[in-house]
């Protein structure tokens, strides 16, 4: 077998073929460095492979390169060399004795740095001239060492391995494309803050948000301005795509449904898991709880015995079985009734819950998780101006924990609502007292509460609701005041302390008094509105919220009903068209439902 030699070649050598040994069939050889082929700046091949270059940059001795010899036709590495560090250069000797080189193959020498990049390469052809090689760019022959060793010499300057010139080598740099000598990485994910938004693709979750990127936080989503179009007849409000404001507000004619006699209160909940809000009424005269199952905007009734004088009802999953249960108070007998739901819209026979005293009478009972254990508890109001906290066991049982005295002349806790008033993750309690005040009790998270703070309202608050009336993210108080013929609003400062008070007169020429209220966005403008059910009236006015904690002085819509004495109100999307509908009860055993007809 005849000996082989190596020649470094490039496509440009074809012009010198008359003076050179045969190159075989390969004619596409390439060399790449700072001088040739617009290669990596700062990387230079050195003699004998090329003529001496004229580098001007700073040599980088820490470059730690490796040399690979590959067969490009099979992409196979046939030799890996670790160069030695010389004076302003690296040097590796390729001893070809260990390889059986194929004269028909062009080989490639690569220089690779620790981050895996190839910063330079040169193609080598096998020739049969014995012991000489041709310099790539000089067409001059240079002798091989020992006839079969190729000296591979090259220079790596800092520019080749510190692309952003920040003093950190690229493979140690958490942002190799942008100078960041401090290597700041706020998220600790290995990506430098200077590069974070270059490598991330941030997408907005919906049309009401815009994607942004922060060097410290990465992808974020900001809310677009209110009023931004997000769909057909829809605009963004507080980051939510909602139907455009309905102006004027239109509510359809009320449809009447029979309830038990003398209904006092109505609540909305899905009792049969069909995705439609049903209605539940507490029927004072007939001693029943009526379940009004929703068939898609129309309702059918089933009655359940609850003993005499039901004045207050509350709904929730008391025994954690996924079904809505009903708690109903007996005003005269001082009983507290629990009716467990079956999940199909029916209720089980009542269970009379033990309370601390059978008398005074029970006038309110609101469900909420007072101690944060995932089980619903009860706030039970009595006719002597006291109320009890009863802790639920998650199975339908309740145990007395503590009693609070709200005693003041003519005050009784007729209604209450749980809510987190100070953003501490604990439920607080607001109680409507039949007098001239509401009481606010801040929760401790264990079922107990701080001493009540009292806030003045119009005379005789009968019902209380919570909602964000001024768009600051805090729950505010809305109280329907019977004798005062007004709706009082109290604005939350964000700490559970209430400041600004506003009274909306809802009296008419006949002096009809508000008894039930419901709060919600009826006109799709993003602000809370209020609908008022009034005694001795067949008209239900709806007042539009101004967004500052007050309501418009005149109703935007008024729903007429056949009953002439209205005691309770509830709202919800009863026909699943994404619009808020209205339900009120009349003492003549009628439930009236008005569907929102806004376009």
Notes on the protein architecture:
This protein has 599 residues and is an all-beta fold. The protein has 2 helices and 45 strands. Strands 1, 2, 4, 5, 8 and 9 form a 6-stranded antiparallel β-sheet that branches. Strands 3-12-7-6 form a 4-stranded antiparallel β-sheet. It is elongated, with a radius of gyration of 41 Å. Mean pLDDT is 88; it is low at 1-5, 9-29, 129-136 and 138-146.
Structure summary:
This protein has 599 residues and is mainly β.
What do the pLDDT scores average to?
88
Number of strands: 45
> Major sheet: size, sense and barrel closure?
6 strands, antiparallel
The DSSP helix count reads: 2
β-strand percent reads 35-45%
Helix content: under 10%
Topology readout:
Layout: E1 5-8, E2 31-32, E3 43-45, E4 66-71, E5 76-81, E6 84-85, E7 90-95, E8 106-112, E9 118-127, E10 132-134, E11 141-143, E12 149-156, H1 158-161, H2 193-199, E13 209-214, E14 218-223, E15 229-231, E16 234-237, E17 240-243, E18 255-258, E19 263-269, E20 278-283, E21 288-294, E22 299-305, E23 310-316, E24 325-330, E25 335-339, E26 351-353, E27 362-368, E28 377-382, E29 386-392, E30 398-405, E31 413-419, E32 428-433, E33 437-441, E34 453-456, E35 461-467, E36 476-481, E37 486-492, E38 498-505, E39 514-520, E40 529-534, E41 539-543, E42 557-560, E43 566-572, E44 581-586, E45 590-594
Antiparallel strand pairs: 1-9, 2-9, 3-12, 4-5, 4-8, 6-7, 7-12, 8-9, 10-11, 13-14, 15-16, 16-17, 18-45, 19-20, 20-21, 21-22, 23-24, 24-25, 25-26, 27-28, 28-29, 29-30, 31-32, 32-33, 33-34, 35-36, 36-37, 37-38, 39-40, 40-41, 41-42, 43-44, 44-45
């Amino acid at each position: 077998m005849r000996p082989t030699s190596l020649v470094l070649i490039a496509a440009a050598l074809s012009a010198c073929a008359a003076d050179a040994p045969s190159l075989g069939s390969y004619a596409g050889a390439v060399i790449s460095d700072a001088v040739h082929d617009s290669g990596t700046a700062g990387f230079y091949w050195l003699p004998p492979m090329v003529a001496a270059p004229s580098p001007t940059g700073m040599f980088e001795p820490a470059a730690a390169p490796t040399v690979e010899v590959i067969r490009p036709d099979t992409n196979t590495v046939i030799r890996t060399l670790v160069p030695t560090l010389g004076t302003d250069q690296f040097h590796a000797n390729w001893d070809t004795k260990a390889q059986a080189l194929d004269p028909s193959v062009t080989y490639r020498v690569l220089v690779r740095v620790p981050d895996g990049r190839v910063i330079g390469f040169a193609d080598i052809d096998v020739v049969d001239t014995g012991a000489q090689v041709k310099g790539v760019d000089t067409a001059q022959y240079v002798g091989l060492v020992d006839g079969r060793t190729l000296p591979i010499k090259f220079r790596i300057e800092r520019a080749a391995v510190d692309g952003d010139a920040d003093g950190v080598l690229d493979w140690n740099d958490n942002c190799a494309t942008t100078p960041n000598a401090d290597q700041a990485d706020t998220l600790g994910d290995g990506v430098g803050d200077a590069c974070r938004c270059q490598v991330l693709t941030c997408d907005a979750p919906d049309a009401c948000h815009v994607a942004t990127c922060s060097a410290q936080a990465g992808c974020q989503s900001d809310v677009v301005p209110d009023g931004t179009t997000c769909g057909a007849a829809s605009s963004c409000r507080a980051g939510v795509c909602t139907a455009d404001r309905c102006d004027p507000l239109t509510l359809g004619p009320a449809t009447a449904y029979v309830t038990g006699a003398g209904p006092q209160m109505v609540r909305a909940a899905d009792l049969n898991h069909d995705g439609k809000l049903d209605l539940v009424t507490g029927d004072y005269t007939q001693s029943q709880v009526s379940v009004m199952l929703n068939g898609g905007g129309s309702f059918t009734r089933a009655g359940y015995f609850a003993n005499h004088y039901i004045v207050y009802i509350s709904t929730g999953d008391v025994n954690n079985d996924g079904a809505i249960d009903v708690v109903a108070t007996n005003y005269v007998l001082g009983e507290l009734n629990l009716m467990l739901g079956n999940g199909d819209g029916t209720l089980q026979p009542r269970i009379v819950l033990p309370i601390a005293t059978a008398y005074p009478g029970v006038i309110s009972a609101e469900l909420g998780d007072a101690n944060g254990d995932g089980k619903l508890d009860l706030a039970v109001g009595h006719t002597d101006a006291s109320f009890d906290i009863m802790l639920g066991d998650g199975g339908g049982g309740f145990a007395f924990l503590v009693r609070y005295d709200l005693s003041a002349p003519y005050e009784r806790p007729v209604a209450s609502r749980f809510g987190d008033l100070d953003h501490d993750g604990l439920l607080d309690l607001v109680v409507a007292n039949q007098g001239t005040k509401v009481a606010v009790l801040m929760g401790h998270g264990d079922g107990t509460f701080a001493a009540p703070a009292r806030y003045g309202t119009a005379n005789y608050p009968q019902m209380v609701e919570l909602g964000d009336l001024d768009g600051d993210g805090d729950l505010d108080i809305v109280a329907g005041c019977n004798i005062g013929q007004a709706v009082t609003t109290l604005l939350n400062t964000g700490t559970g302390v209430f400041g600004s008070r506003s009274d909306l007169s809802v009296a008419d020429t006949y002096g009809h008094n508000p008894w039930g209220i419901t709060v919600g966005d009826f006109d799709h403008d993003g602000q809370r509105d209020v609908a008022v059910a009034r005694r001795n009236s067949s008209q239900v006015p709806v007042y539009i919220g101004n967004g500052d904690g007050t309501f418009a002085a005149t109703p935007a819509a008024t729903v007429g009903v056949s009953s002439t004495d209205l005691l309770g109100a509830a709202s919800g999307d009863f026909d699943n068209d994404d619009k808020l509908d209205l339900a009120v009860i009349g003492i003549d055993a009628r439930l009236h439902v008005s569907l929102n007809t806004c376009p």
